[in-house]
Each structure stands twice: as C-alpha cells, then as structure tokens.
# Entry
Amino acid sequence: MRKISADWLYSIDSPPIERGVVVVNENGVIRSIGHRGDFDKTELEIHHGLLVPGFVNTHCHLELSHMKGVTDTGIGLLAFLEKVVKLRHFPQDEIQQAIHRADADMYAAGIQAVGDISNQADTFECKDRSPIRYHTFIEMFDFLQEDRSAEIIRDFVRVHEAATGLFAAVPHAPYTVSPGLFRRLNSLNRDKDVTVSIHNQETNAENQLFLEKQGDFLDFYRVFQFSLDDFRPTGKTSIHYALAHLDPQKRTLFVHNTHTSGHDIRTAQAWNKNVFWATCPNANLYIENQLPDYQSFLDTDARMTIGTDSLTSNWQLSVLEEMKTIARYKSYVPFETLLQWATLNGAEALGMEREIGSLAVGKRPGILLLDFDPERQKLYDPQVSVKRLI
Ligand SMILES: [Zn+2]
# Structure
C-alpha cells in the first residue's frame, strides 16, 4: 500500500481536499481517500502540488507519429490534408519506432487512456501491449462516392477485421462519408458498447459546402479527383448531415468543433443524450490558427473532453499542454473545469468511467502530481509540469 498526499487532492467527482491522502494498493487500485490528520505522518508519501487522476486523451492518430514536423504550420486544413495523404508512406521500422515512442511519451505525460484513430493496422501491436488503455476508432471514408463506396473502403474493412481490444468503425467527417457508408458503419457497431467519433466543423469550408456547395472543398475534391456532381447542399451546417446519418443510440464524440455554434451544440444534444465534444486546441492553432468558442460549450452544459490530435498537427502529445493553451488564450475557462474535461469527461466519452477518470475507491485511474499552485501561478506558466506517481 502507498499512502500519497499533496497540498491538494482533486478527486474530480467530489470537492478538492486540502492535504488529502489517497491510499493505493500494489495494483494501483484506490482503497481509500482521506485527510492527512487521519494518518500517522511517518507512513505518508508527501508531495508539493496537486494530486489528480490520470488524463484521458480522447482524440489521437498514433499511426501518424512518424510525420512529426513534416507539414508547415498555419497552412489551413485542406492544404494540410493534401500533404498528409501524399506524405504518408515511410519505411515500416520508422513508423513503428515513432508509434512506440509516442505511446511511451503519452504514458509518461500522465495519459491513462486514449481514443485513437486508425486508418491502418500499424498501431495494433503497440496498443495491445501498452499500459495505456485504448479505444480504437477504425476510421472510414469514401469521399461521398456512394456507388463506389465498397471498392474505396475495402482496405478499411480489412483493418476493421484485424482490430483487437475495444474498437468501433467510425466515419471520418461529414464531408467524406456518404449516407450508404454511414449505414454500413452503423451496422458494424450494432450491439457493441462502443463510442463513435467523427471529425466535425474543423474548418469553415465544411459548413460552406453543406450550406451552399461553395468554398474550398470544391477544390479539394478536384485535387483528389472525386466528383461532387451528385452532391446536393442541405442548407444547414455540416453537423446536421452527420446527425441525420449517425446512430443516435451510440455514445458519440464530435472532434474539433472549431466552427460549431451554440445552436449546433443544442441540436446535437437534443438528438442524443450521450453526446461528447473533443477539443484539440494545439492542433487547431497548428493547422488553422483558430480556436473553438468555448463559451458556447459552457453555456450549453456540453461535455467537453480534450484531445491532442496527432504529431503531424501538434508539437507534442500532452493533455497538460492542451489545457495550458486553453488557459492562455481562453482564460475564462476555470482550472477545475479544464481538469474535469481532461479526466472524468474523457473517461465517460470512451465508456471507461467505471475504472478511470477520478480518484474514487475501486478505480485504477493512475495518479498524477501536478506541480501547480492555482493561488500563485497561471496554468500556462512554463514551470507547471506533471509527473506520474502511479
Ligand atoms: Zn483527427
């Protein structure tokens, strides 16, 4: 048994405890939570800072780790996607090394669970052996080519058949998935307790396409040589198209939401009470130099979670670094709210809240020491750091 104490203990599902103590057995399972006064001081491990549960990274592309720094920053989503697709092919040993390094770095940075997108099977072996718990999203897209969908997604179906652990088949984004492919994905996930994720409203061009069939996506489709001749704009923002075709019975995670309005959020939350949102602020700055309007998410009681996206669109895979970015640019989001986004909300989004996400008896959430004094420091202070204790 370890009896760990720090200046404050943030359990997340109850109020913070000053000089709190968490008692953990040799398997990392929490046995009790208490106060320093209840223990003999000599049996305590005492730290400066805050005790918090392990972080949950709800959106990552581990398989793109080898492309770190390959694309320029600030070029916009469409130019970014073109580069990523063209530059994906590297020697397999380089790909594997980068995947294993990124997985180990995430664990060291306090990440306990990851919602990870896979277009290929490259990460499966690493994820099977990792101390991190993964929910894999086998992502498919057919560029809205309903009649050619079976042929275009053949490789994705193979990846789906090879998948292990907790996984779901998921659509890439509203602008790349036809109604027929949505139906197929829904049937692959039927009767499974999984989360479905979808990239959503990452760029304004996505809304423009669905509102009026205008904007940069017309060029994007030309570059990839897929026809939009049969595409009819819906006259509504892109999330409405996703809502019309996703399964409302499934826990659903909308990712990025950089151009999502309060009305969009309310519509999604009325459609399905199990809706979660992932924000990847550093990737938004890396690619598009924009951030979501977090106030709209606070005003609608949206269950926000935090993702790192991939090393192709970020400088590192660290939930703390994402929290720092929000604290720096959108300082109206309180620290305790950010902590909830980074832990329990993420665990709920991945269906893992019974085991991780808060410091509660019976859970095995990982225990982190956040070297941070909310009274005297800003969260984005470079000195603020995180260390994994368990
Ligand atoms: Zn992504």
Q: What stands out?
A: The mean pLDDT is 96. The longest strand covers residues 111-118. The first helix runs from residue 77 to 86.
